[in-house]
Fold this sequence. Notes:
alpha+beta, 2 domains, 3-stranded antiparallel β-sheet, 2 helices
Amino acid sequence: MRKVFDSSVVSEVILVRDALLRHGIDASIQNQHSGFSAVPEFRPPAGVWVTHDADHEAACQMVQDTLATLDAKVEAAPWRCAGCNTENPASFELCWNCGREAGSSSRA
């Protein structure tokens, strides 16, 4: 097993792990619940580890691609739902209000 990513933001760790799994790279999270520690100094970051060392290089590239995609979506303009006219962050694939897909909506 080799570590490919770590972060104190558990949601980032879960997104990275899930991206690896979707691409057929067996991965797991260690220290996922460390953010619940009452003492901040003792909160180790959660880490994503690949099961097979042979997947390490491909996994590292996948991590970089995933983080770049997340950063691009954070900086992108919000979109307005064509169904209910609610503004949604660019990172949302579905309208938070009515559940309509972003592809069927217009940019705000």
